[in-house]
């Protein structure tokens, strides 16, 4: 079917009660372009839940007026919604068309029976959200929309499935299956032609055959094609092929991208892609785009994958819902492996009004939609049927797990199935009895129970994960999977090698602070295929789970969720603007991908306090040697490195030399301005160095755009990094100040903010305070031409950037 963007021309307002509207109480519609996050505009309130970053829920209404030409009568017209959060209801010309309860499922509304041809039409979409998630969801039509138009005989939406049946060095056997639909009243026979081209545009295979479709029915036509000397897709060489399908002379045509690659899995060799062993260096990521809220722009998704790959990751796990089409396409192009996930809950709810209310009725349709969307993407290697599902520790939960896993296999037998199982949650119903038994042992038998002995929550999880209770209760739920996904249960890796010799394990979620020993386990055990940290990219909601926390004697442990106005989880390797934090460089060193060391300095103002962060919280440090007011004081310097020893020098003077243990060493250094240098030695020979320098007085506001040329279409954006620096260009993280923007020309400001984890500032304002010397502005084009951004800050000359906006997707490569 012909696919046309349907993103422009929408209007939006909070939903109004019809009786109130009759009485004259109404709300005006305002024009918006989707993707659009309705929740971001509602603001925040301390009375709301920290899980959703204190944003207000609500009900929202979108409408769009559009014309359908008289000559289109007899055609099939659909609107495809890539994502509407949540409980979407779709109406055309006042008539109910369809609905979709799950906020992350792609769905289509068939407009055909309700249209007025040669006249105006109106489509209306309602969405609502309230206490239905454990993170920030956003709301409204937050992903792309498309108008699909097809003739009486056409290729069905997502009706092309490309499968590599067999591949070796000489040739690949590629099956192209095409589902053809017919609205005709008579039998129709049409010619179906397929042409495959490689990444250079060369035709490498082609075929054609007639296909006959019965009236009002569908027919699936399969062609086996043979690609000689195929270039295989892999993370290191993401070579994509194109399958162009033509139906008849002018009936329909469609193009899909795919990759030729093989997957193999066994406990002795682990995961192999094209026969090469691969360990997954994984990042869990939520779906929000930081300053854009939940609005899903292809360029924002692409940028996230670019930066995550630059940071050393080779895989992402979308947590905990199906990944956007735009991010899948970016993963294909850039060579990022994907674990795509379905649900955060099945029949047992985690929030008052979450998807568990609809799961039993809708799960099958949602699974079908996810697999149909993912099928041709070579980056997708695993489907996850859930995350931390409480039912997995029960026979009834194992029944559900088998049902979901078998459904996925029936839809796509070419990938593997996993489930992110939290072993503690799986046996939560048994823990009360377990605690009672421990208390008897402690007081009567002189023993010490697990929870009493362990003061650390991570240690408690480890002890529980290896218990006989967990082993027994989760056995069936793990057995229905191809890969046993384990959240915070790396303590099982070694014992499961003996207890379950055929079990293949993936660390689907782990503490970032444990990456050194976890990665050692991954490397030592062939049946463990990788690790996914929580999280690769910081996100809105679950506020403050990774924030630095301090306690003094006699004060209670701080709550897990931070109070208002905390905004982010504060636990990502990269912050919400895409800036790498110290944990990211440590991870890169642990992965063996960085030879130079890295310096991070703990904030001097907290030196005499006791750190009480969670296992998601990195130490309270940044990579800076600019600490006004700390002159003469002792500061703690963390040095990360891969080598035998590291030496630290301050302004050329030796401050000490220490062995590196677990890839790090800590130094106590008396602060003075200048240069702090770390040098790593391996076998007595220098193998890397890294320095940080003191920034002098702020003299400049530097503005740098990621690309100077962008496209007017295709969801393109320009990201402008704003940095406070001294005369030499060194970032000054200790002199934050407001920055004011002015945007003119053929574009608008899509978002503006910083990575500050606790703030009441908005992302849709023209003013924002820098955080640690940085802020980020995001520009969205509105037409071909130029966009000019001018930024001003106190005591700095104005900074400006110019972005050229061109027609056509080819502009995406510009800049």
Automatic annotation (TrEMBL):
Transmembrane segments: none
Domain Glycosyl hydrolases family 2 sugar binding: 61-149
Cited SUPFAM superfamilies: (Trans)glycosidases (SSF51445), beta-Galactosidase/glucuronidase domain (SSF49303), Galactose-binding domain-like (SSF49785)
Pfam families: DUF4982 (PF16355), Glyco_hydro2_C5 (PF18565), Glyco_hydro_2 (PF00703), Glyco_hydro_2_C (PF02836), Glyco_hydro_2_N (PF02837)
A GO molecular-function descriptor: hydrolase activity
Domain Glycoside hydrolase family 2 immunoglobulin-like beta-sandwich positions: 159-261
InterPro entries, sorted: Beta-gal/glucu_dom_sf, DUF4982, Galactose-bd-like_sf, GH, GH2_Domain-Containing, Glyco_hydro2_dom5, Glyco_hydro_2, Glyco_hydro_2_cat
Keyword Protease on entry: no
Residue stretches making up the Glycoside hydrolase family domain: 701-801
Domain Glycoside hydrolase family 2 catalytic: 270-425
Record keywords: Glycosidase, Hydrolase
DUF4982 domain boundaries: 632-687
Similarity-based family: Belongs to the glycosyl hydrolase 2 family.
Protein name, entry field: Glycoside hydrolase family 2 TIM barrel-domain containing protein
Species of origin: Streptomyces broussonetiae
């Amino acid at each position: 079917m012909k696919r046309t963007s349907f993103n422009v021309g929408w209007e939006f307002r909070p939903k109004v009660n019809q009786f109130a509207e009759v009485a004259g109480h109404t709300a005006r519609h305002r024009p918006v372009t989707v993707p659009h996050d309705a929740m971001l505009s509602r603001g925040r309130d301390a009375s709301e839940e920290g899980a959703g970053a204190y944003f207000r829920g609500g009900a929202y209404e979108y409408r769009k007026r559009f014309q359908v030409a008289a000559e289109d009568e007899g055609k099939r017209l659909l609107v495809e919604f890539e994502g509407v959060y949540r409980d979407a209801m779709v109406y055309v010309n006042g008539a109910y068309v369809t609905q979709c309860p799950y906020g992350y499922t792609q769905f289509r509304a068939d407009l055909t029976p309700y249209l007025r041809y040669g006249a105006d039409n109106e489509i209306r979409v309602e969405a609502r959200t309230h206490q239905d998630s454990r993170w920030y969801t956003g709301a409204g039509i937050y992903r792309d929309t498309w108008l699909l138009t097809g003739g009486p005989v056409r290729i069905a939406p997502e009706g092309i499935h490309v499968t590599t049946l067999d591949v070796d060095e000489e040739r690949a056997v590629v099956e192209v299956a095409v589902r053809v639909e017919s609205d005709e009243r008579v039998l129709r026979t049409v010619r179906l032609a397929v042409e495959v081209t490689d990444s250079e545009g060369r035709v490498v295979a082609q075929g054609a055959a007639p296909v006959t479709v019965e009236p009002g029915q569908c027919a699936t036509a399969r062609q086996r094609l043979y690609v000689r000397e195929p270039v295989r897709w892999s993370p290191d060489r993401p070579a994509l092929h194109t399958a162009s399908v033509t139906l008849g002379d002018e009936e329909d045509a469609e193009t899909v991208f795919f990759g030729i690659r093989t997957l193999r899995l066994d406990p002795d060799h682990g995961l192999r892609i094209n026969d090469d062993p691969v360990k997954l260096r994984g990042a869990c990521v939520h779906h929000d785009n930081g300053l854009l809220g939940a609005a899903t722009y292809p360029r924002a998704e692409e940028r996230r994958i670019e930066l995550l790959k630059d940071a050393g990751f080779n895989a992402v796990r979308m947590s905990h819902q199906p990944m956007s089409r735009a991010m899948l396409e970016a993963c294909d192009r850039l060579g990022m492996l994907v674990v795509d996930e379905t649900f955060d809950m099945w029949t047992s709810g985690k929030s008052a009004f979450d998807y568990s209310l609809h799961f039993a009725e809708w799960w099958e349709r949602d699974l079908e939609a996810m697999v149909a969307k993912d099928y041709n993407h070579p980056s997708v290697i695993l489907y996850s049927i859930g995350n931390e599902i409480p039912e997995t520790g029960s026979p009834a939960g194992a029944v559900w797990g088998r049902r979901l896993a078998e459904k996925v296999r029936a839809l796509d037998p070419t990938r593997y199935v996993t489930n992110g199982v939290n072993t503690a949650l799986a046996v939560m119903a048994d823990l009360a009895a377990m605690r009672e038994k421990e208390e008897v042992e402690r007081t009567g038998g002189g023993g010490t129970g697990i929870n009493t002995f362990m003061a650390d929550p991570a240690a408690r999880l480890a002890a529980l994960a290896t218990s006989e209770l967990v082993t027994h209760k989760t056995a069936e739920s793990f057995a229905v999977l191809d890969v046993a996904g384990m959240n915070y249960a790396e303590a099982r890796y070694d014992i499961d090698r003996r207890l379950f010799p055929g079990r293949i394990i993936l660390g689907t979620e782990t503490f970032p602070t444990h990456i050194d020993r976890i990665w050692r386990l991954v490397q030592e055990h062939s049946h463990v295929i990788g690790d996914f940290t929580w999280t690769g990219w910081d996100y809105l909601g679950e506020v403050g789970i990774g924030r630095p926390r301090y306690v003094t004697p006699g004060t209670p442990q701080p709550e897990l969720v931070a109070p208002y106005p905390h905004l982010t989880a504060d636990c990502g390797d990269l912050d919400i603007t895409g800036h790498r934090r110290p944990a990211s460089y440590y991870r890169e060193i642990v992965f063996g991908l960085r030879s130079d060391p890295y310096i991070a300095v703990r904030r001097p103002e907290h030196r005499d306090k006791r750190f009480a962060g969670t296992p998601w919280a990195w130490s309270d440090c940044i990579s800076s040697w600019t600490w006004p007011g700390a002159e003469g004081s002792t500061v703690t310097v963390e040095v990360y490195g891969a080598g035998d020893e590291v030496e630290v020098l301050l302004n050329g003077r030796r401050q000490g030399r220490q062995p590196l243990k677990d890839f790090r060493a800590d130094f106590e250094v008396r602060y003075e301005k200048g240069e702090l240098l770390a040098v790593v030695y391996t076998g007595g020979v220098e193998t890397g160095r890294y320095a940080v320098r003191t920034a002098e007085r702020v003299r400049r506001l530097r503005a740098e755009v990621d690309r100077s040329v962008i496209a007017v279409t295709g969801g393109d954006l320009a990201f402008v990094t704003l940095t406070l620096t001294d005369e030499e260009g060194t970032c000054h993280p200790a002199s934050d100040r407001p920055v004011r923007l002015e945007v003119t020309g053929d574009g608008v400001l899509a978002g503006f903010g910083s990575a500050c984890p606790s703030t009441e500032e908005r992302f849709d304002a023209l003013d924002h305070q820098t955080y640690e010397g940085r802020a980020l502005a995001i520009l969205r084009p509105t037409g071909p031409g130029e966009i000019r951004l001018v930024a001003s800050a106190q005591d700095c000359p104005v900074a400006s950037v110019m972005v050229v906006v061109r027609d056509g997707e080819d502009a995406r490569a510009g800049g």
